[in-house]
Design brief:
One of its GO terms (cellular component) is cytosol. The chain is α+β, with helices and mostly antiparallel strands. The chain is built from four helices and seven strands, in the order αββαββββααβ.
Length: about 150
């Protein structure tokens, strides 16, 4: 895990780490989001996320992202890079990246339906919508604008 961590993060900069416990779902599924009663229990398995904001000029871009920014000729722009640790055990791509400007349309955040289309283009990267989608929610619901690049390890 250290090579991934060193590739993705600047250890001298602030890194935030969070943990969300898994849950055993006996009855009810996601109905609790609508106020229904469910029978669930937190378990020791969990999802851990490390996230770091970094100025675009300092961000280490993957080669294809470097080529895209060079082709556009507009200098470093904020990007999102996500690595899904352990994805080799599934049918999903281990990495996802995008320019954060792709979440904007005419100075406003894109609609959630457009985001769904965006993340559905490549089935191997559809998982990233669950992670990157929270950035769009912050932009659309709270007016947050991201001028820094974001690196995430999930």
């Amino acid at each position: 895990m250290m090579p991934i961590f060193a590739m993705l993060f600047f250890v001298q900069e602030e890194i935030f780490v969070a943990r969300a416990p898994g849950r055993l779902d006996v009855m009810g599924g996601i109905a609790d989001y609508s106020g229904s009663l469910v029978l669930q229990m937190p378990i020791k398995e969990a999802c851990h996320v490390a996230i770091q904001r970094i100025h675009p000029s300092k961000h280490r871009l993957w080669k294809h992202a470097q080529a895209q920014q060079t082709a556009r000729g507009n200098g470093p722009t904020p990007v999102l890079q996500i690595v899904s640790y352990g994805s080799e055990l599934s049918n999903r791509s281990p990495t996802f990246d995008m320019d954060l400007s792709e979440f904007m349309d005419g100075g406003k955040p894109i609609s959630y339906s457009k985001a769904k289309e965006y993340f559905s283009r490549d089935p191997s990267q559809k998982w990233a919508g669950y992670v990157a989608g929270m950035i769009l929610v912050l932009m659309a619901e709270l007016g947050v604008r991201f001028e820094d690049s974001i690196s995430m390890l999930v």
